[in-house]
What we know:
Elements: H1 3-25, E1 42-46, E2 52-57, E3 67-69, E4 75-77, E5 80-84, E6 89-98, E7 103-112, H2 121-127, E8 136-140, E9 148-151, E10 156-158, E11 173-176, E12 182-186, E13 190-194, E14 197-198, E15 201-202, H3 204-212, E16 214-222, E17 225-232, E18 237-244, E19 247-252, E20 268-275, E21 279-285, H4 290-294, E22 298-305
Antiparallel strand pairs: 1-2, 2-5, 3-4, 3-6, 6-7, 8-11, 8-22, 9-10, 9-22, 11-12, 12-18, 13-17, 14-15, 16-17, 18-19, 19-20, 20-21, 21-22
Amino acid sequence: xxxxxxxxxxxxxxxxxxxxxxxxxxxxxxxxxxxxxxxxxxxxxxxxxxxxxxxxxxxxxxxxxxxxxxxxxxxxxxxxxxxxxxxxxxxxxxxxxxxxxxxxxxxxxxxxxxxxxxxxxxxxxxxxxxxxxxxxxxxxxxxxxxxxxxxxxxxxxxxxxxxxxxxxxxxxxxxxxxxxxxxxxxxxxxxxxxxxxxxxxxxxxxxxxxxxxxxxxxxxxxxxxxxxxxxxxxxxxxxxxxxxxxxxxxxxxxxxxxxxxxxxxxxxxxxxxxxxxxxxxxxxxxxxxxxxxxxxxxxxxxxxxxxxxx
Length: 310
């Protein structure tokens, strides 16, 4: 055997020897049993802020991604999360983790006996906060094109600036107070309402408004709509807020509405699409009659704080 073949054989034997050594040094994987269902738990910690709690996956670092339903229309991901609860009440917090075999849920109930409105900026921006004894007053932004947009599944009709001057809409005001959740609709005796014929009923919205929300008289046609004399059911109305799917919905009672009555079912509700110190956009989804709901009618209103100049 020549020298080259001997050298080649030695190289092969050396490679095999090294491979055997490396294989013998490889550690066997450590097998762990799945986390027992009863070991999945939630650790609750108070923070220094009223109605703000910290929630911790008790098997932190031992499970796959921890997912949370915080019971306040908010969700979160992670082993440690923060829950904020502006309003008193009972809230069910649910943790979902994978224990190695299946998804495991663990729920607890946390309770709060007082509000902390400061945790929800929408309330302060809408009303001016607890220190604003006179509340905050909102009006239509009549100097902007598109301050009202009437939308259905096929089209969008905007109101151009000042297009409804003298129709009983631009002098309307809505005042909101946080104290007592008071809302006052001041229309200076005239309002604007969707008119015309819906599903064969003439002046459908006018009749609905008069029957359910106040006293409406003297309708004067303005194209397909009406200028009316209108008095809400109560001189001072009420409002409330509901959070669904992370969105804020403003509910008005006792005959108040955002400046153009477009109809509703059992309550007058608007999604607050956006809000800041001086501007607010609300969206009303028509729910009555069925023909309007099926056509996806939505009405968008651009509002400004009374006295605000762009």
